[in-house]
Each structure stands twice: as structure tokens, then as C-alpha cells.
Amino acid sequence: MAYNHKQVMVDRPSRLTSGHRMCAGCGAPAVARTILRAVKSEDHVVVSNATGCMEVSTFLYPYTAWTDSFIHTAFENAAATLSGVEAAYKSMKLTGKLPEEKDTKFIAFGGDGGTYDIGLQSLSGAMERGHDMVYVCYDNGAYMNTGIQRSSATPKFADTTTTPAGKVIPGKMQPRKDLTKIMVGHHLPYVAQTLALNNFKDLYEKSEKAIYTKGACFLNVLAPCPRGWGYATEDLMEINKLAVETCYWPLYEVIDGVYKISYKPTNKLPIEEFLRPQKRFKHMFKPGNEWMIQEFQDEVDTRWQELLDLEEITNKA
Length: 317
Hints:
By secondary structure, the protein is an alpha/beta fold. The protein contains twelve helices and eight strands. Helix 2 (28-37) crosses helix 8 and helix 4 packs parallel to helix 6.
């Protein structure tokens, strides 16, 4: 019988329950729920969650939306905390202090602020040491939980509370950090870039690969934020679609250093289709600011071509 991921998803329990306090139109809950659906029903999960939107909205003591073991850690050490737990688990298994029949998976969740910036050191350390764990970055492109301040994941020209678009400086002036490629540079067995909605199959299958690949794995998942991005809550699916169709957020995976692009748009849309529905970019569409859109387009095109080249080169090797 052929593998039916849809049926498997339905049959497996939801490990992030309803009743959390995430905003309507937020991509993060779908990220966590879909990734946890990729865990086999018989396996146990230890979740390490950095401070951020997801933590404060899903674990308000004594209430929790998580059905597995959950550890709230500080902004900077979600990966370090989980790597310690994984090491302790491994030791207890070897010394016979834990039963052999039940397997435990270790998954860390952090936003881009706690991953690209504050938690980068502990993330890099955990990945370099090769702990058997998955780190998931739900990337909403700013420090949304603390007031929509810019992060290194914030795209160029975006209007945030710390990079307000004005007459002199038109928003954030630095391009977005490419964390996925930084993680590839750690020579991990599995790294992938995917998104919260619009393609559940892609997110689910990449999550399953990451969880059941031995060693340290990394998932970078686009998780749009209606408050920080300024789109209508009902447009979450459309925003995700436009991110992919414009190649702003390419879907790809890297298995033992070999790149594989998961989706190549038949008709690549211009980047303004992705920018226009978001209030954080509205200043880019004022007369005289066409150069901003062109510069943004050039950056997207350059990064997309680099990815195409990497796929070709690594598959020839």
C-alpha cells in the first residue's frame, strides 16, 4: 500500500491542543501542530520553547496547550537546554534507567529573534555537537512578542518600531540574514526551509524527515504575523502562497550537503505581489520609491539563482 501522509496525519494525535492564545491569522500554531503530527503516535516528545509569542501564548501557568513534556527556556538557550536533556536521556538509556521500548524525540521551537539573533550561539553549539534533536525556527521576521522590533530576519525596507519608515531612512536598511544556509554550513544531515500553511504536505514531510534523521537537524519555517506584517487575518494562506510564488521564501531541503528545491514556480511572480498586501511595505509604493521595489526584486532574484546553482552543483558532485 502506498504511503498516505494525509491519512497518517489524521490518525496521529494533535500534540498542540486548541485553546492557545495565539493571534488569529498567525502562522506559528500551524507550524507547531503540523510538525508534531509528524511524530509517530507511540513516541514521546520533549519540547524546548524559547521565550516568544509561542511560549507566552501556549503555556500560561498552570495552563498548557502542549500534551508532551514542555520546557520553557530563556530567549538565548532553547537549543542548549534541549541538548542537555537529550544528553541526559542518552545517558539514562545506556545505564538502563529508562525503558527501551519507548522512544523520545527532542524538538526546540524558537522565533527568529530567539534563533537568528539572541539564540544563535547556543543553536550553533548544539548543531555542531550533533545532538539528536530538531531545532525549528518559526520565522515571522521581527521580535513580534515584544513590540515588533527588527531582527536580522527582517527583510530590507520593512517598517518596524525600531526601523520606522520615514523621509530620511525608509525602514530597515540591511538585507535579511540567510540562516538556513548558515545551518547548512554546519554540515548537518538534514536542513530544510518550508512554510506554515499553503503546503501542509511539504511541511509535514520535511518535519518527518528531520525528526527521524539521526543527529542534529534544522527547519526554518515561514510563519507570517498579521500584526507585524499588516495583512488581514483571513489572508494568511494567500501571503504564504505569494511568498513562495515570488521566490521570496523558496522551499528546499539539503540532505548531507545536497540541495533539492521542493518547488519551482512555473510563472515566477514579481516581488511586488508579495509586498503590496503588507502594511510594513506600504511606503515602498509611494511615487519616487520604485527603486526600493527594484532593489528588493534584485535581491530575491540573486538569492533564487544562487539556490538554483547550488542544486545543480551539489547534485553533480
